[in-house]
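Hi all, posting the design record for the shared folder.

TITLE: backbone redesign
STEP: 1 of 1
STRUCTURE INPUT:
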């Protein structure tokens, strides 16, 4: 029963998927991060379904197709990770010291660099989907599981930049060893699936994810003294963008 509560906590926190209300207490949050990749499974399945419907049944044009595929992750998550991406972009572009960057992350106001960053991000994702070969859509469906697996691993592994906050609450409540193992299995399954579906695009996406993770680890430590919920969301968005780009470029090089 606690596992079902942990699933409900993960889905209610990281998605707009309707779930029964569950108390956010330690026993329910202990394995919540293990279910974070489930949100990625839902996104991937919806994109596969949308691709089939728009490609075979409706014969939609490239612009509508790219727009729908770009917006599906936003609809499922409610934009929670994009909020972290925006806040982190503002903080990184401030070029202030560590304390100033952490203060910007807590600021509820949206700065100019956040707006610029979000516009650029959506434009890039839209452009990549407009060039995405239909045959590799099953590969892209796996990237949302991999990005969340790696983000979850960072939450229970990296040092927290602050002694309070949502990420710290998940860290303190999580069963770290068990959660890392489960998330590593999720990540391994996603990579294996991508390689089996298309080894070239799958390998490119896996490499992009690894490089993004290494960048995130170094950046969070050097710029912020550790990770936060906003930084974990920023990484997730950067990782997915990098994997989409790698898949498209690998396809064009074929």
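Okay, here is what came back for every position:
SEQUENCE:
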């Amino acid at each position: 029963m606690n596992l079902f509560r942990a699933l409900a906590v993960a889905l209610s926190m990281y998605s707009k998927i309707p779930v029964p209300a569950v108390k956010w207490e330690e026993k329910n949050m202990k394995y919540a991060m293990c279910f974070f990749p489930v949100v990625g499974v839902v996104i991937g399945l919806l994109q596969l379904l949308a691709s089939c419907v728009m490609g075979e049944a409706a014969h939609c044009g490239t612009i509508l197709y790219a727009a729908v595929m770009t917006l599906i992750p936003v609809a499922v998550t409610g934009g929670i990770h994009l909020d972290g991406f925006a806040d982190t972009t503002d903080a990184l572009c401030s070029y202030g010291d560590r304390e100033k960057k952490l203060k910007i992350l807590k600021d509820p106001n949206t700065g100019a660099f956040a707006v610029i960053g979000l516009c650029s991000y959506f434009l890039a994702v839209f452009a990549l989907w407009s060039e995405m070969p239909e045959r590799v859509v099953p590969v892209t469906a796996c990237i949302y599981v991999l990005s969340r697996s790696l983000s979850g691993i960072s939450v229970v592994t990296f040092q927290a930049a602050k002694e309070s906050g949502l990420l710290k609450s998940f860290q303190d409540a999580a069963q770290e060893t068990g959660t890392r193992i489960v998330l590593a299995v999720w990540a391994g399954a996603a990579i294996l699936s991508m390689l089996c579906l298309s080894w070239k695009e799958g390998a490119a996406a896996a490499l992009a994810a690894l490089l993004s993770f290494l960048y995130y680890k170094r950046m969070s430590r050097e710029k912020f003294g550790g990770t936060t919920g906003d930084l974990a969301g920023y990484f997730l968005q950067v990782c997915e963008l990098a994997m989409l780009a790698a898949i498209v470029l690998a396809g064009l090089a074929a």
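COMMENT: The chain has one domain: 38-252.
Let me know if anyone wants the other runs.
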